[in-house]
């Protein structure tokens, strides 16, 4: 049991480090991409850095719908995870913009039919 817990803890640590570092270390990964894909990435990063959670999330989601490389996919997924964690933490601390973004994103997902049933 101790060994399983140690392995799980190690895996979580690695995942956390990848999530925390991914969006910062891979910012240039889209430099050679087609203009429309690079545009989504640049817009997402700009919004992310400004804590414009909704705009960042929608641009990252747009990227996930594009034909991107596996390396780019990992970078986008890491950026999304970091954004979501920061947004959830801000909302938990009473940040009205983060709370509104969470609500807006849920409404947008429901409107697009991507929300989970029963929620």
Give an overview in words:
The protein is mainly α and 119 residues long. It has helices at 2-25, 35-49, 53-64, 70-92, 96-111. The protein has one domain (2-111). The chain contains five helices and no strands. Helix 3 (53-64) runs antiparallel to helix 4 (70-92). The relative contact order is 0.12. Residues 5-25 have low confidence and may be disordered.
As a percent range, the share of strand residues is under 5%
Distance between the termini: 34 Å
**Low-pLDDT stretches:** 5-25
Q: What's the pLDDT, averaged over the residues?
A: 82
Task: Give keywords.
119 residues; mainly alpha; 5 helices; 0% strand; globular
In short:
This protein has helices at residues 2-25, 35-49, 53-64, 70-92, 96-111. By secondary structure, the protein is an all-alpha fold.
Which helices and strands appear, and what pairs or packs with what?
Layout: H1 2-25, H2 35-49, H3 53-64, H4 70-92, H5 96-111
